[in-house]
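Late entry, evening session. Most of the bench is empty. Finally got around to the prediction I had been postponing all week. Sequence below, unchanged from the version circulated by S.P.
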Amino acid sequence: MLRSRDLQPVERASEAFQQSLTAQEIGKVCGWAFGGAAVPVSAVELGGGMYNNVHRVTLAGRDRPVILRVAPEEHRQFRGERHLMRNEYASQPWPAVIAPLMPQVLAAD
């Protein structure tokens, strides 16, 4: 189970657009996406994103980390940004010709 000490969030003000996930939230997302056997052991939030939060998550028993992207809470988004990540996911079939160069989506909700 991911412990708070194994989570490295980006420091932000409480009123900031983006808000970091807690260790418990990351654990729940990983459990939903990969099943109960997927245990996150560390998570590093990667800064620099303009819209969503991005975490590099290391799961027990996996050689490579996974990237977790999470949209801001809906009430923190502008009307034109709502469902932005959902729309990005829905558009993935169109650049199929360059699919080998793109990250592989493991789960989406």
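Two things to note before I forget:
The mean pLDDT is 84.
The CA atoms of residues 91 and 97 lie 13 Å apart.
Will write this up properly tomorrow.
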